[in-house]
Amino acid sequence: MLSSRNRTFAGGYLHSLDSKNRVTVPKKWRFDGDDTESAYLAIPQPVGYIWLCPPSKVDQLDEKMESILPSDLVGQHFTMYLMEHSEMVYCDKSGRIVLTPSLIEHAGLDNQAKLVGMFGSWAIWNPDRYAKFKEDPFALDIGSKGRRMLNVMEKIWKTGIM
After folding, report:
1. Bridge-partner residues for 41, per DSSP?
2. Is the pTM above the cut of 0.90?
3. Is the pLDDT assigned to residue 1 strictly greater than 80?
4. Are 78 and 146 in contact (CB under 8 A)?
5. Tell me, which fold does domain 12-158 have in CATH?
6. Do the bridges between strand 50-53 and strand 122-125 make them parallel or antiparallel, or are there none, so unpaired?
7. What kind and span of H or E run contains 66?
8. Could you tell me where the DSSP H helices lie in 67-160?
9. Dist CA 116 CA 108 (whole Å)
């Protein structure tokens, strides 16, 4: 098990989503202990997956998002939209996290979830959607709102905020 500050998540796993909207986190991705310091921030991404950030990544994101000026209306809109749709999730004693209905709907999850490591974070995908994304990352129709969100994310990233 990991310390809540560990930043390496590697591998890909196919897990079932149970009737209570729980998915098991791979054992090597779990934290030592379970407290408020060991929660993941679940962020719905415009491409249609859920991005899970551990405390170390949340700290980085918090620092960057706090640097968005109040006068930056696009940045403020993005921050509010992002956090309104995000959730803090915790592992239970069996190593499962509970996903909200809105996160499940966003990711198009049914009975199975594909968990994919992303170095300092990880993602939850609908397995079929992930297969399409792997084949061609631009094949998924994310709509105009999704494209706008990705453009804002890119702008923030390039300016050093994200």
Report:
1. 53, 88
2. no
3. no
4. no
5. Chemotaxis protein chec (3.40.1550)
6. antiparallel
7. helix 55-66
8. 73-84, 101-107, 127-135, 143-158
9. 16
